[in-house]
Design a protein that fits this description.
3-stranded antiparallel sheet, alpha/beta, Rossmann fold, single chain, about 250 residues
Length: about 250
């Protein structure tokens, strides 16, 4: 990389971008530019909005940075991993360079996130059964989490957890039904994973199973947190992101 990359956060299901405020502030204090974007699905009243709509929104936000010549580290949380994977076709630094362009995705860093193959939906990735902590409306068109305090925020300070719970928005179930159209793992992208050891939404064993499909030499880090380290331990998460940046910078300089 030629400069300090922009760190761009992709939210998970039901979450708005404000949840990254603390980790973004920490990274800003360390000299990083950061960015994020809301998802089209979060709070949508349109039952047909899904992964590909979210991917289009994220791709547009990434292109604003990349077309300005920026190099970007994408940090994708939970469901946001599926969104990020479907938003980056042709946008790696090497793919852009092959077209005579500068800028691009320097790293896709999955944060306790889903990484699924092409032609696989989120529902297929969880054995075609809605998790028992998903509340599905009678018409099966919208989803909300059951007991998010336990599932998402077990180690988050109660006032902040209460704020986060109050801010959660419903999601169209289409987000779980859309099949992925792109998988970056073997497409000339640098990829990495941050594990959350006490996760009650996506068990760490499942996280490690997905990481086992990553190319040899991919970055990984582990946090002793629940599903939301950006709220429970933002400094430790910032450390992991900075370690990932240092890792790929060192790898590129060899």
């Amino acid at each position: 990389m030629t400069s300090t990359p922009v760190v761009f956060f992709v939210p998970g299901a039901w979450h708005e971008p404000w949840v990254f405020d603390d980790v973004r502030s920490t990274l800003s204090d360390r000299g990083f530019e950061t960015g994020t974007s809301a998802l089209a699905t979060v709070g949508s009243k349109n039952a047909r909005v899904g992964v590909l709509d979210d991917a289009a929104v994220i791709r547009s936000a990434l292109l604003e940075l990349i077309d300005a010549g920026k190099e970007v580290v994408v940090v994708a949380h939970s469901y946001g991993g599926v969104v990020a994977s479907n938003s980056v076709r042709g946008l790696s630094i090497s793919q852009r360079a092959a077209d005579g362009k500068v800028g691009g995705i320097a790293l896709l860093l999955y944060l306790c996130a889903f990484v699924v193959p092409v032609e696989t939906s989120l529902l297929m990735a969880v054995n075609n059964v809605f998790p028992d902590w998903w509340n599905v409306t009678e018409d099966r068109q919208f989803l909300t989490p059951i007991d998010p305090g336990k599932v998402f925020y077990a180690d988050v300070k109660p006032p902040l957890a209460a704020r986060a719970i109050a801010a959660l928005e419903p999601m169209p179930s289409q987000m779980a039904l859309d099949k992925s159209t792109y998988a970056p793992l073997n497409e000339d992208f640098e990829v990495g994973y941050v594990f959350t050891e006490k996760d009650q939404a996506l068990d760490v064993s499942a996280q490690r199973g997905m990481f086992s499909q990553f190319p040899a030499g991919s970055f990984s880090a582990s946090l002793d947190s629940s599903h939301s380290p950006f709220l429970s331990m933002p400094v430790a998460l910032a450390d992991a992101i900075q370690d990932a940046v240092n890792y790929i910078q060192t790898k590129k300089s060899r």
